[in-house]
Amino acid sequence: MANFTKATGIKDWLDQRLAIDKVEKVMMSEYWIPKNINFLWAMGMVLVITFALLVVSGIFLLMYYVPTVDEAFNSVNYTIMREVDFGWLWRHVHGVAASVVFLIIYIHMFTGIYYGSYKKGREMIWISGMLLFVAFSAEAFSGYMLPWGQMSYWAGMVITNLFAGGSLHADGLVEWIRGDYVPAQAFLGRFFMLHVLLIPLAIMGLIGLHFGALRIPHVNNQEGEEIDFDKEAKKYLDGDKAGSKVMRFANDFMSKDMMVVGVYLVFFFYLVFYNYGFAMDPVNFDPADGLKTPAHIYPEWYFLWSYEILRPFGIDLGLILFAFAQVIFVLLPFLDRSPNAVPANRRGLFAIWFWVMLVNMIVLTAMGKLPPEDPFSTIGFVSAVLFVAQWLALPIITSYEKKV
Amino acid sequence: MKDNSRRGFMGKAFGAVAGVGAVASLYAMKKSWDPLPSVKAAGFTTLDMSNYEEDVMITEKWRGKPIFVLKKSAKVMKKEEGNPEAEARNIKVGNDNYMIAIGLCTHLGCIPAFRKEEGNFLCACHGGMFDASGLAIKSPPPRGFDIPPFKIDGNKLVLGEVGPEYQAMKDNGVTL
Amino acid sequence: MKNKEPLILAVVVVFSLIVYYLVEPYAHHVMHKQVESENFVYADLPAITKTGNVANGKELVMGAGACTGCHSIEVAGVAASMDPVSAAGAYGVNPPDLSNAGVVFDAKFLDALIKNPAEALKVSHKFDESKGQMHPMIPFYGAGGDIDQEVADMVAYLQSIAVSQEELTPKMAYENACGRCHAVGYEKWTQIGEKPKFKYEKDSLAFDIKVLEYQDSLKAYMGKLPPDLSMYYRSRGEHFILTLMENPQNHLAGTAMPRVGVSAESAEKVMEHLKDAADPKRQERAEIGMNVMIYIIIFAIFAILWKKQVWRDLH
After folding, report:
1. Are residues C43 and C80 in the same domain?
2. Does position A1 have pLDDT exceeding 60, yes or no?
3. Residue C276 lies in domain
4. Hey, is the C-beta of B142 within 8 angstroms of any chain A C-beta?
5. Interface predicted TM-score (ipTM) of this complex, two decimals
6. Which end of chain B has the least Cβ crowding within 10 Å, N or C?
7. With a CB-CB cutoff of 8 Å, which residues 210-239 of chain C face chain A?
C-alpha cells in the first residue's frame, strides 16, 4: 500500500496522489526538443489553440442553435446573428477557425513531408496525424450542414450520393445514411449529433494519440540530424544550456510556440473581423431549397483538390481515384522507400517530387472551384492524372535514392 | 500451466460472449439509422394528367425529390421516332405521351434546368445534358434520368406504386 | 548557421496567398457575370425639359381617371379604394401609395413611367400591347395640352408633397421601392405591411392568411413568389443588389422583376435597410474588431519579448 505522509503544502498533497512532479517532467520540463528547428515546428501549438477556439465558440453556438429543418437557418441567421449578444462573434470565430484550421493542417502536413518527419520511428505520428485530418474533414463537413442553407443542403446531397458507389447503385446505403430519400430532418439530426458529440470525441482521442506518438521518437529537426537525447539532456541539466543541442519543451520551446501563436492570432482576428467572407459562402445565406440547385456547387476550399480528382472522370473511375486520393497520404511512410530522413532539398528527385506535388495540389484546388468548362476542365484532368502518377512513381524514385 | 491455459480458454470464451453482445448492439444501432416508417409511408403522389400543356416542363414533388413531367408534342415524338431507347422511356396516358422522370442528374444528384429553346436539360453542376426523353446526351451522367415507380389509373398517375408499365421498364433495364 | 526563417515564412505566405487568390477573387470573377454600375443616371430615359407647375400637377394627379383612380396619396387625404389583398387580386400587385414617390423615385424615371409604364419598368417583354398584354398601370395619354408639360407638372406635384431626402428613412425607402413584392421576415415586414403584435392567435393567423392570399396574386402576376430579402445583403452582396435594382435585366435577362427606378440616394437607403436586416451588428463588429486588434498586437509583442528572454540563455 502506498505510503502517504502529512503534506507540506497543496503541491505536495497533490504530488503524493497524482505524481504531478513526474508528470510535469515527462510532459514539460524534461520533454526535450531539438534546438535546430524553425517556426514551422510551432504549427502543432497553433492547431491546439485553433481547436480550442473552435470548441469554445462552438459551445456558445450550441446553446441557441436549433437542429430542425424549419428552424436551423433562422436560429443561426436570426437568433445567433441578431439577438444573442456577441452571437455574431462566436459564429464568425467558428466559421473562420474552421477554414483556417485546414490552412494550418496543410502547412503542418507539408512541413512533415518536406523534412521527412514520417520516417524512422515517426510513422505513428504521421498516421495519427492523417487520421486527425480525416476526422477534421468529417467534422468540417458535418458542421457545414448545420446552418441548413443552400450550400449545406446541396453539398449534403452530392457528398452522400458518393456512397451510392457509382454503378454499384447502392441507393439503400445512401438512404440509410440520410434516414430519408433526400437530406431532411433525420439527416440534419444525425449530422448535428456527429458534429457536436461523436466526431469531437474522436478528435480529442486522436489528439492524445498524436501527442503520445511524438513522445518516444521526439520531434524531428530541420537538418534530419540524429540526436542522442539522453546525452544532450544531461549536458543541459548540468548547466551547459547554450552548448546542448536540446531544450526543454516548457518554458524554452513553449515561449517560441507562444510567440508564433501571438503573430498567428493577429492574422486570425484580422480575418474574423475584416475578412470573414472567404469562410462563409454567400450561397449558404439562402435557405435550403430541395427544388432549386444553386448555379455553382463547390465544396469549401480545403476539399477542392480531392473534389477535382473526382470531377473530370466518369463516375466509376472518378470515385475510385477519389478514394485513392483520400487514403494515399496515410501510406506515405511505406511508399517512401528511401533510407534518408532528411529535408527534401538534399534528396535529389524527391525534392522535385515534393514541389510538383505542392504546386499540383494548388492547381487542383483552383480548378475544383472553377466551373467545369475548358480550359479549366482540361487543366484539372491533367493535374488529376499527374497527382495519381506522382504517387505511383514515389516508391520507384525513392528506392533509387542514395544514402546521404 | 494447466490452470493458465484454462484461464486462457475462459478468457477467450468471455471475449466471445462479449463480442456477441457488441455485434447484437451494432444491429440495433444500424436499425436506428434506417428511414422512419412515417418517412417511408409518405411516399405516394397522385398526378392529374389532364393539367399539363404540351412542351411545358412542370416540376412535381415526390418523396422530396423533383419529378419532371413533360407532355410531348407531335414534333418531339417525331424526333424520337426510330430511337428505341427514347421510345422505351415514353409513358402513354390516354392518347398523350409524357416524359416523366426523377429530376436529379444521375451523376451526383443536382437538378438540371430545362432549356425551352433547345428542348433539353442542362445540369449546372458538372455540365451533363439530357434530351427531352430523359436520355443522357453528354457525360458525366452515366445514364438517363431514373423513372420513378408509377401506376397509371385512368387519367391519373400514382407515383410510388408499381404498375405493369413500370415493371416492364424495370425488367427491360430502361430504368434502375 | 544562417537563419532560414524569413525565407520559409515567405514561401508559406506566397503559397497561401496564391491559393486564396485562385479560390476567392479569381474563381468568383469567372463564375459571376460582371455588371458595371450605371450610377442610377438612367441614361436611356429622356431628360425632363419642362419646368413643372405644382398646382397644375395636383389637378392632373387628382383628376378623374388619373392616378388616384388606383393609387392612394395619404398625405393629400386620398385613401386607398381597396385593401392590399383585393388590390393585388385586381392588379397583380398592390399599387403604391404616392405620398413619397417624388423623393424615392428618380424624376426622369417617374416622367417616363407615367408616359409608358412597361417601357420605363423594362418589362415590355412581358407586356406586349400588340399581343393584348396590357400593363396594369395605364399610360397617361395627356389631358389635351402639351403632354411633356403635363407630366412634368405631375412629377413636380409628387415631389412637392413628398418628405425631404433627409427625412426619408431607410425603412421608408425600402417599403416604397421593394416592399410590396419582397418580404423581409427578419424585420417582420410582409408584402401587406409590418405584422403587428396580436393578442389572440386567431387574429395572428387571420393576418397570415391575408398575406398568403396576397402572395397568391403576386405569384400569378410575377410567375413565382419574389424572395424574402432578409439575408440578401449577405447572400448577394451590395454590388449585385444595387446593379439589380438599377436594371434587373442586366443580371437576369427576361426576369419579371421591373426596374425599380429609385434615385441614387434612395438606393443607398434601400441598401442600408437590407444591411440592417442581414448584418445589424456591423457597427459593433467594427468597433470591437479595432479593440481586439489592438489587444492582440500587444499580446503578440509580450509573447515575442518573453521568447527573447527565455532564449537568451539557449544560445
Report:
1. yes
2. no
3. 32-280
4. yes
5. 0.93
6. N
7. 230-231, 234-237
